[in-house]
């Protein structure tokens, strides 16, 4: 683009516009800093890999999830899947309007949605975790929106982890935000996410992503291929017909129709997290406590004890940039 076609915009102009379009949170990350710090160096997925020209800034936008569904305790509740899918759709509209507005002002831009997994990473095994083309929780940290929690979910001061994310790439020359220094997560002494997780897939600053996928995408590609394989292997036509008409089939069809249960699903770890101004105001009275599982509590106690002895796991060290400093350890002294 030549300067003659560009309107001069500030970071404030962009944030005000995107909030007016309907986003609840907006931050701007430096694309070069993200290129220099890929979350997974073995398989880097950087803004610069997506666009040679328009990845100078990564504008991360968030919409909050509604509290009414968070107050429902079941993880596999279709109202949750459906409401969350509507939040994603609304955020997609905001992102598209923001891109067109940036381009009206002479700044080419493109959207990196939360649901876009890397098709080149697929190797024929539907059970394998498919990473996104850009990790939006990490991008959100780079954009100053929050920090990562015990299970590497994004935590924001306003809504805790109860947000959906999207990102806009553009080389619009505005000031970038930077990561927060201190962790918002309260660590293993809290551990509510770990206690509540139906798959027990949360560890010490890590998560078994493949295990989690079965819950956070309960009617997704892996389940669809499993189901079709079972039908093929059933052999008997009457049985196959009954399976085609089953509730599983119905749920898969409904999910394909709208994406609810595919791009949305379990979010128990988000529901129970006490971080966020919204928690006391809208959720505290409905706080459905996690499993009372002594084995999990012992695990959390072990994690807390090792942190107190300054023995932090490699998973923390590798992700420290995005988790932040564990200031709660100073308070425990
Ligand atoms: S989304 Fe569900 S399964 Fe995955 S970590 Fe959170 S609580 Fe556990
Ligand atoms: S529930 Fe507790 S341990 Fe888990 S992310 Fe939130 S603050 Fe951290």
Notes on the structure:
There is one protein chain. The protein is an alpha+beta fold. It has one domain (1-218, 261-333). The protein has 16 helices and 6 strands. β4 (147-148) and β5 (154-155) form a beta hairpin. α1 (11-21) crosses α5 (78-104).
Q: What string, H for helix and E for strand, traces the elements in order?
A: HEHHEHHEHEEEHHHHHHHHHH
Structural class: alpha+beta
What gyration radius follows from the Cα positions, in whole Å?
21 Å
| Number of E-type strands | 6
Spatial shape: globular
Bound molecules: iron/sulfur cluster
Q: Given the structure, what is the number of helices?
A: 16
Percent range of helical residues: 40-55%
Main beta-sheet strand count, sense and barrel state: 4 strands, antiparallel
Residue share in β-strands: 5-15%
Uncertain runs: none
Termini separation (Å)? 55 Å
Number of domains: 1
Mean pLDDT, to the nearest integer, reads 93
Q: Within the largest sheet, what's the order of strands?
A: 1-2-6-3
Topology:
Layout: H1 11-21, E1 25-30, H2 31-36, H3 47-50, E2 57-64, H4 67-70, H5 78-104, E3 109-112, H6 136-142, E4 147-148, E5 154-155, E6 163-170, H7 192-196, H8 209-216, H9 221-234, H10 237-244, H11 247-258, H12 268-271, H13 277-283, H14 294-308, H15 314-323, H16 328-332
Helix pairs in contact: 1-5
The structure holds iron/sulfur cluster (SF4) (2 copies).
The site of one iron/sulfur cluster (SF4) has 14 residues, from helix 8 and helix 12.
